[in-house]
Amino acid sequence: MPLIAILPGDGIGPEVTTQARRVLDALDLDLTFAEAPVGGAAYFADGHPLPPATLDLAQRADAILFGAVGDPRCDALERRFRPEQAILGLRSELGLFANLRPAKLFPGLEDASALRPEVAGAIDMVIVRELNGDVYFGDKGMRTTAAGRREGYDLMSYDEEEVARIARVGFETARARRGRLCSVDKANVLETSQLWRDVVTEMSAQYPDIALTHMYVDNAAMQLVRNPGQFDVIVTGNLFGDILSDQASMCAGSIGMLPSAALDGAGKGLYEPIHGSAPDIAGQGRANPCATILSAAMMLRYSLGMDAAADRIEAAVIAALASGARTPDLGGDLSTEAMGDAVVKALA
């Protein structure tokens, strides 16, 4: 019986993971669940954002359903104690190097997008983001220059194997979709990006069936607004992927609709909505649980091999939206729980 670790985290994390758990329970899949604190909640309870017991559960579990981390009360803490270190620690400790972030406009949500309906309606892409390198994990710190000025620094780096393994995920993802891969970098300025482009180009010889293109990240940001329908799969580094995937979410209507998967390449995965902890609406019952529910669907598909159950969840979300179910971020007035009710009802 598969063990699912549920790590609700901070802010709206507990609210949205509760609804995802309800949907999973409604499928009657013989899953075992165990919950543990993470992020700011864990720091206040145990003195660390990723306590040993939480990490142990994550390591033992077949998959992890994650809420969100981030608590403004922790902003003045040393960086190693801040909530965000929990997700970075999990990615590092579990070897979760590949982040899949689908972005698709669901029928009926055209008006929720910041783009014109005819432009937004064409959005159907997956952003494949590298998770364990780049400036997020490079050497960083504060120092004083010879002139006595404070200076912050962050090292961006990738080696060729790190690029090759994420590129492989990008090519394979494109092969399972429409056969188009766009590699995003900043090779005209950054040596890290030049290596990235060189390695991806070299690997394309192994995938003659995939149409590979390259694009600078500033142009990619513009094209996501101008013509998002041109993209099938985007593969890019940690920093650029973080930014572009959030941009894609607003093109697709709401950040509350987009799930994600962080994979180790061998079946283990952490699944989470791409939105943050949203402390400004935490506890108000206004959060959209759909991204977390769809993350649970990705969990069933990628880690547990339960494709039919994943299809049922995705179809239920589409049906709930088609029935008019909307949380405030989508222009409606349903509570988090009521939106969960709508999806559970659609499952039946």
The low-pLDDT segments are none
% residues in beta strands: 15-25%
Elements, N to C (H/E): EHEHHEHEHEEEHEHEHEHEEHHH
Which term fits the overall shape?
globular
Terminal Cα span: 24 Å
* Major sheet strand order: 2-1-3-12-11-4-5-10-8-9
What is the helix content? 40-55%
Instruction: Please tally the helical runs, counting DSSP H or I stretches of 4 or more residues.
Output: 12
Structural class: alpha/beta
Instruction: Using the CA coordinates, give the radius of gyration.
Output: 20 Å
Largest sheet: 10 strands, mixed
Mean pLDDT: 94
Query: What's the β-strand tally?
Result: 12
Give your account of this protein's structure:
The strands form 2 sheets. Strands 2-1-3-12-11-4-5-10-8-9 form a 10-stranded mixed β-sheet, with helices on both faces. It has helices at 13-27, 40-46, 52-60, 84-94, 117-120, 160-175, 191-203, 217-226, 238-251, 290-302, 307-322, 336-347; strands at residues 3-9, 32-35, 63-68, 98-104, 124-130, 140-144, 150-154, 180-185, 211-216, 233-236, 259-263, 269-273. The model has no long low-confidence stretch (mean pLDDT 94). It is built from 12 helices and 12 strands. With 348 residues, it is an alpha/beta fold. The longest helix has 16 residues, at 160-175.
